[in-house]
Amino acid sequence: MQYLRFESQERCEDNASRLGIFHIAYRVRDAHATRIHDSNEINRLIQWFRDHLHAPDALENPQNRRAICWFKETAHEPTNRIWAMVPILKDYGYWIDLRTTRNPGQIVYEDDWQVAAIPR
Fold first, then answer.
1. How far apart are CA 71 and CA 1, in angstroms?
2. What digits encode the pLDDT tens for the residues 12-64?
3. Rounded to an integer, what is the distance from CA 78 to the centroid of its chain?
4. CA–CA separation, 76 vs 54, rounded Å?
5. φ/ψ (deg, to 5) at 3
6. pLDDT, tens only, 56-103
7. In angstroms, what CA-CA distances link 20 with 24, 32, 36, 37, 68?
């Protein structure tokens, strides 16, 4: 199984990983300089994720504070929506990279579309 992660160039404060696309999406959505139609589109996409993608409870456990989320390669519906968000974020100066791996680390959560894993 291959795993996909959409991440920015910025580093997380808690670990050596890069900030994921959702952190950047919220930042752009909430910025005063963001155009209304872009903010609305980001909101629409984020709402779809809230409605269809479970936020892993395992991330609330302090032992898992280094865990990051990866999409499974079979998660076509959510990744298509992520790709719709990428050009909006790029317009505001955020480059989003697609990172892939076959070994995301120690998996602490898994569902049909994603895993949360502590990097090795």
1. 10
2. 776 667 889 999 999 999 999 999 999 999 999 999 999 999 888 888 888 88
3. 10
4. 16
5. -120, 145
6. 888 888 888 889 999 999 999 999 999 999 999 999 999 999 999 999
7. 7, 21, 23, 22, 8
Q: Which two tokens stand for residue 18?
A: 């890069």
Find residue 98's DSSP bridge partners.
Answer: 6
Helices (H), the chain: 21-30, 36-52, 76-91
Distance CA 14, CA 45 (A): 26
- Rg (alpha carbons) of the chain, rounded to whole number: 14
What is the chain's percent helix, strand, coil content, to nearest 5? Answer: 40, 25, 30
pTM exceeds cut of 0.85 = yes
Token couple for 78: 């959510």
CA 40 – CA 29 distance, rounded (Å): 8
Question: Amino acid letter at 40?
Answer: N
pLDDT at 100: 97
Distance from C-alpha of 12 to C-alpha of 10, rounded to nearest angstrom: 7
- The structure tokens listed for 105 are 């680390």
